Each structure stands twice: as structure tokens, then as C-alpha cells.
DNA sequence: CTTGACAAGTTCCAAAAAGAAACTGACTAT
DNA sequence: ATAGTCAGTTTCTTTTTGGAACTTGTCAAG
């Protein structure tokens, strides 16, 4: 399968990865959440080549994750800002960061700390169920075919996840 | 910056992406959560080339996200199972899937539905603060340098995110 | 008027990675 | 003997990336 066809897959993860499933794209978005907006700033902070950066920014704009906004005329200069669609990637990025904090940090601990403004404390993200509000782990969810599935494939026979628990 | 140095960055997202920040790796993990364990099964379901699949599985094993477990001798056959470290990627994958359901689905809706076994309802993941339990959005968090930051860089001047709200 | 700086790219080439498809090795079934 | 299964490896071609220089429009200094 090729990258270009990934957004046709009957899988929301594949479709999401068609937009952000690239080594640089998520780092660009991380910087967007930190307030970076300009081409040069992305380049200096990320160490990505201008070539690739231009391509990734263009794709993010095409997918409506970023918007190009002029901040001066003569010469025309444009910066990149998160759209609402882009801002909604925050939970996903937060979850990836949290995993890295837990499993990839060195002995000094997490490189950056997230302060929850509402309560004022350093926080970790916790994933809960939208219906009952209880925390959700991998073993607490069961997957079923939904309306958008189509006819293309079939779910694999469910196996138990490693480490105990019951997955049907 | 090269892919190989990414896990040295003082950023948990970069370090996480050094492990899973690849177009195929997250799709492999998605299938792991669906119960897929064998080389052939991954290949058939993903449409990835055997070459790349072998490479990604090897890297996931090296990083301790998957474990290789023999399921028969003569001939030796091994399958890949999520470790606890791998299982903890579930919130991140769920968040990416949820974004895709919301922003990349066609008119028929989400391809697959997640049922929360504890309460029995179809669910979306909601990210809440570990300290106060309130939902957390991008505009509710403030980023500060933590103990693991080192001396390598500096946080950018914080800008307001697009679409209202106040980010200090 | 010429030079230099700034910002946001584009162009060019060599190197690395990915795609496609055949090949290997240790078996089992017919 | 022949074919099939499974988990890869090898070979070859195409695509993508990394690195670095070049372009365009404008302002400021000398």
C-alpha cells in the first residue's frame, strides 16, 4: 500500500496517519502548540531541511490542520496557525508525550511539564470514557464494525492481549 | 536532524516518535491491539512489504514495545505480542483514531466502534487531568521546563492559539 | 547605487529508504 | 516427489530525504 492511498482505508487511524503519520509532521505540530508559527522558526528549532518542512507545512494546510495567515505585506509574509481541527490533535500529542515521559525519559525526569491552568497542578493526561467517565485501558474496550466500515475487510479473530485481562 | 538521533532530543514527543513515529509502525500496533500477532497476518492485513514489516517489527522488539514469543518448535515459529509498555500506547492510538473519526470519516461515520466493556456503551476517549479530573483542552495547559530538559534549547515565546482562548 | 540582511521558499544532487517480487530454509500434508 | 505454510532475506528499481546553494521581494546602511 502506498502513502497516497492511506486516507481511503476504512480505518480512522490510517486516515489520521495520512495527515500526521510522518516523522516531521508531528514535531511541527508540537512546535505549533508551543506557539511557533514561522517557517524560519520551525526550521531552526527542528533541524529539518527547508525542503521537507515546506512540503509538510503545505500538506498540513491542504488538510486544514494549519492555516496560512499573512502577518505583513510588502514583502508578503505568511505564518502558520493551528485551525480548530489542528487544535483537536492536542489530546493525541499529549498522549504520545505522556508515553514518552513514562517510557523514554532519562533519570532526570520529563523534559517539559504540563500545568493544568484550571487547577494549577502539573498533570498527566488520563483517558476516560465519554459515557461513564471511568478510566479506559486497552483491555477495557471491545472493537466492533461500525457504519463506515464498508465491505473491504474483516476484523481479525480477537486474541487476548499480553499480561492478563480478558478481551473476549 | 536524523531519525537515529531523535531519541536523544530533550522532548518526549521526539523520543516517542523515535520508536513509533513511522507510517507503518502505528498501523502494526493498531493490528496488535486487534489481536494480530503473526508476520503473515500483518503482511496480508496491512499491505506493507515484508522487507519493511520485518524491519519495523524488529525495531518494536528492540524498543520493548513488542515481544517475540515462540508458539511452536520444529520449525521454530515466533509471534509478536504487545508488552505492557506497548499496551500503554493504547491511549495515544485511541486519541489518533478518535481524531480520524471526527475529521476524516466519510458520511457513513466511523469505520469501527469502541465499546467500553465496563459500562457497555460505544465510547469516545476524553482526556482529563490526572490531578483534578476535569477535561483538558489545548488552551487549558501551560508548558514549563522540567527536570529532564537539559541546557540544549529554550522554549519559544508563547503565542495565543488560533480560535480564541488565552494561553498566557 | 551597491551591498547586506531577512523571510519564505525552490532547485539540484547524492544518499537513504521504500516498493515489488523472487528466493531460502525448515518443516507438514498428500 | 510435489505442493503448501511461515518467517523471513535478497535483489533491484523507484521514491523520498538530507545537505547546501540559489531565488524573490523588500528594507536599511554605507
Automatic annotation (TrEMBL), chains A, B:
GO terms for molecular function: DNA binding. It holds the Pfam family HxlR. Keywords: DNA-binding, Transcription, Transcription regulation. SUPFAM superfamilies: Winged helix' DNA-binding domain. Residues 11-108 form the HTH hxlR-type domain. This is HTH hxlR-type domain-containing protein.
Amino acid at each position: 500500500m502506498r502513502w497516497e492511498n492511506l486516507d481511503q482505508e476504512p480505518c480512522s487511524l490510517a486516515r489520521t496517519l495520512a495527515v500526521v503519520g510522518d516523522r516531521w509532521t508531528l514535531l511541527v505540530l508540537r512546535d505549533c502548540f508551543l506557539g511557533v508559527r514561522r517557517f524560519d522558526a520551525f526550521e531552526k528549532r527542528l533541524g529539518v531541511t527547508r525542503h521537507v518542512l515546506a512540503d509538510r507545512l503545505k500538506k498540513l494546510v491542504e488538510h486544514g490542520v494549519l492555516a496560512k495567515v499573512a502577518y505583513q505585506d510588502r514583502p508578503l509574509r505568511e505564518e502558520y496557525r493551528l485551525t480548530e481541527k489542528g487544535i483537536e490533535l492536542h489530546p493525541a500529542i499529549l498522549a504520545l508525550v505522556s508515553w514518552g515521559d513514562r517510557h523514554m525519559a532519562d533519570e532526570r525526569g520529563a523534559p517539559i511539564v504540563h500545568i493544568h491552568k484550571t487547577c494549577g497542578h502539573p498533570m498527566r493526561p488520563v483517558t476516560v470514557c465519554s459515557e461513564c467517565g471511568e478510566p479506559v485501558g486497552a483491555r477495557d474496550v471491545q472493537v466492533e464494525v461500525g457504519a463506515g466500515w464498508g465491505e473491504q475487510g474483516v476484523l481479525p479473530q480477537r486474541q487476548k492481549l499480553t499480561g492478563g485481562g480478558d478481551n473476549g
